[in-house]
Design brief:
The complex is a heterodimer of chains A (293) and B (315). Chain A is mainly alpha-helical and 293 residues long. Chain A contains 13 helices and no strands. In chain A, helix 4 crosses helix 10, helix 8 packs antiparallel against helix 9 and helix 12 crosses helix 13. Chain B folds into 2 domains: 57 residues, no CATH class; 234 residues, MetI-like fold (Orthogonal Bundle). The relative contact order of chain B is 0.11. The chains are: A mainly alpha (293), B mainly alpha (315). The interface between A and B is large, with 93 and 91 residues.
């Protein structure tokens, strides 16, 4: 309160004033820190609850405590024991597969759409936006009939292709925005120096667009990893269910402890976290370059 | 260097350098179209064909028998008439619209508040806001499962409410509270996205203008409505339409939280489409629900496309 007063004795107090101001500002700064911490504590409570409940295998659903006083890993054992490991394996293979399919389809397309000067480009971009708006339940229903006659139900290929429908449009949009900023002269020089079209794409464009490609790949992974609907509809054999479907089954089962369900949930969340942390630097660069386009 | 090489080849080889250059450009265009080929095939097989097949299914009596006999009798608009005669369809329609409108409105307000909070400079303001991204990394099925346990009759939320003297109940098992509970979960899951995008948009707001307004005596509310909101409006409008479409299409969250219950109080169009196709094996009616949902989302998709084209033109 008094800190606001010393403005009058300008000459004498001059060396003192800045420190008083900065101290006041710093004190107000800490209030905002506390507000933020409080907001985050409330907002992130469900995440804490998931971790805490996963460590209480001995507690039934009513007496799951706020703190795991005697933490145990029994929940994790239960989650991984029967189907968990298999589900994790399916999810990982399907997600990696759909990253591969997404990039194989989207990299050349994004490059072409960034170089072509034609009305077709804007039509293609509109179609990509519209494709993202088709309800996945509509796709799942049609895929069920299509894959049934193609023999792709209960297969990795089927799940990979279905999940790539989430990744491809997004990947093309993000990578095209990035590739628009590449130096045209470098690419044309490569062409004239005798690198074929594939050579130019592979040796010049791909290395230069690393950030955008990693970003598109990470998102393709996350989309596929988070999928429930395709795993639920295009699979009816236990050993082919992804982890998301197993969590749904656990959460609907009549287990009298939350520990196994929460442990499975936590296990299913870790790969997404690892992928995004590992790729953080690229994703930041890939998205900022693409934004605003 | 490019031009030199071109000129050299032109002089030594063909008669007209112009024609050579044109044919080079034409060849390059051909190659670029070749690069588009895999994407075009993918688009036709995995978007266009399923879409057409969905329309076809919605006009036939497509059931489990169809997979054996290969026959799906054409029934015209009978599936649509059948679902429109069901009162549950209107329940689903209202629920879908309610969930979408309410959650997007709440997300906008809370997301903006969070973004404004995170835009301040304070100790920890560099890394604390990144923590909010954590829930965004959780798969939808995990979000719904965790909230199912939080909202359970004997869950921690009721522990708090009970301690505060507020009457407790099984939120997801009571038809009166299940829909609001679903909305709360949808908002929780989307907030990181809103806070991050709006946070990035806030960086575009000119700081000098804000300072000048403050010196002129403009209060915080006035600065928000007169300077901040107009600057970030293009981002907000696109974000709203995108979230509307995204929220309309949500199936997994509701499927895990309530599966449409209790007493069908939380059914949505997407859920009914799933239920008809994969639980009742009435693919025709499932397809009809899907088309209804698609029609609604296309309306918003058109709005979104028009907006983004206009935005691109402005830039």
């Amino acid at each position: 309160m008094t800190a606001t007063l010393p403005a009058a004795p300008a000459i004498d107090a001059a060396p003192l004033a800045p420190s008083a101001v900065s101290r006041r500002r710093r004190r107000r700064g800490w209030t905002w820190t506390m507000v933020t911490v409080a907001v985050l504590a409330v907002y992130l409570f469900p995440v804490y609850w998931m971790i805490s409940a996963s460590l209480q295998p001995q507690a039934n659903s009513a007496d799951t405590a706020w703190f795991p006083a005697a933490p145990g890993l029994g929940g994790y054992q239960m989650a991984l024991d029967d189907a968990g490991i298999g589900g994790l394996r399916v999810s990982i293979l399907v997600s990696l597969g759909s990253v591969l399919v997404t990039l194989l389809v989207a990299i050349p397309a994004a490059y072409a759409l960034s170089r072509l000067r034609s009305r077709a480009v804007s039509i293609a971009l509109i179609l990509l936006l519209l494709a993202q708006m088709i309800p996945s339940v509509v796709l799942a229903t049609s895929f069920y009939a299509m894959f049934n006659s193609w023999g792709l139900l209960n297969t990795f290929i089927g799940l990979i292709l279905a999940n790539s429908t989430a990744g491809v449009p997004f990947a093309v949009i993000v990578m095209r925005a990035f590739m628009l900023r590449l130096d045209t002269e470098v690419i044309e020089a490569a062409t004239v120096d005798g690198l074929g079209p594939l050579g130019t794409l592979w040796r010049i464009v791909v290395p230069l667009s690393r950030n955008a490609i990693v970003t598109a790949g990470v998102f393709a992974f996350l989309f596929s990893w988070g999928d429930l609907l395709f795993g639920l509809t295009l699979v009816n054999r236990n050993e082919m269910y992804p982890i998301s479907v197993l969590i749904l089954a656990l959460s609907n089962s009549n287990l009298n402890t939350w520990a196994a369900t929460m442990a499975a949930s936590l296990i299913a969340s870790v790969p997404a976290l690892v992928v995004i942390l590992a790729a953080q630097r690229h994703v930041k660069a890939g998205l900022t370059a693409g934004s605003g386009r | 260097m490019t031009a030199d090489t071109l000129k050299a080849t032109g002089r030594s080889g063909a008669h007209a350098p112009g024609r050579f250059r044109r044919s080079l450009a034409a060849r390059q265009r051909g190659e670029l179209w070749g690069f588009l080929a895999p994407a075009i095939v993918f688009f036709v097989v995995f978007f266009l064909f399923p879409l057409g097949y969905g329309v076809y299914m919605s006009t036939t009596n497509y059931t489990t028998g169809t997979f054996i006999t290969g026959r799906a009798p054409f029934v015209g608009t009978a599936n649509f008439e059948a679902i429109l005669a069901e009162p549950i369809t209107f329940r689903a329609l209202t629920n879908t619209v309610t969930i979408t409108v309410v959650s997007v409105a709440v997300e906008l307000v809370l997301g903006l508040l969070l973004a404004l909070l995170f835009a301040r400079t304070f100790p920890g303001s560099r890394w604390l806001p990144t923590l909010i991204l954590l829930p965004w990394l959780l798969p939808a099925v995990v979000v719904a499962t965790v909230w199912k346990s939080l909202l359970a009759g004997d869950g921690p939320i009721n522990d708090i409410l009970g301690a505060l003297g507020i009457p407790v109940q099984a939120w997801l098992a009571n038809p009166a509270t299940a829909l609001p509970a679903v909305i709360v979960v949808a908002v929780w899951a989307s907030l990181p996205y809103w806070a991050t995008i709006l946070g990035a948009a806030l960086k575009q707001v000119p700081a000098e203008q804000l300072e000048a307004a403050q010196l002129d005596g403009a209060g915080a509310w006035r600065r928000l409505t007169a300077i901040v909101l107009p600057t970030i409006w293009p981002v907000v409008s696109v974000l709203v339409v995108m979230s509307v479409v995204y929220t309309l299409l949500i199936v997994d969250l509701v499927l895990v939280l309530t599966a449409g219950g209790p007493a069908n109080s939380t059914v949505t169009l997407g859920l009914l489409s799933y239920r008809q196709a994969f639980q009742q094996f009435q693919f025709g009616q499932g397809g009809a629900y899907g088309m209804l949902l698609l029609g609604i989302s296309i309306l918003f998709a058109i709005a979104y496309t028009v907006m983004s084209i206009r935005r691109e033109r402005e830039e």
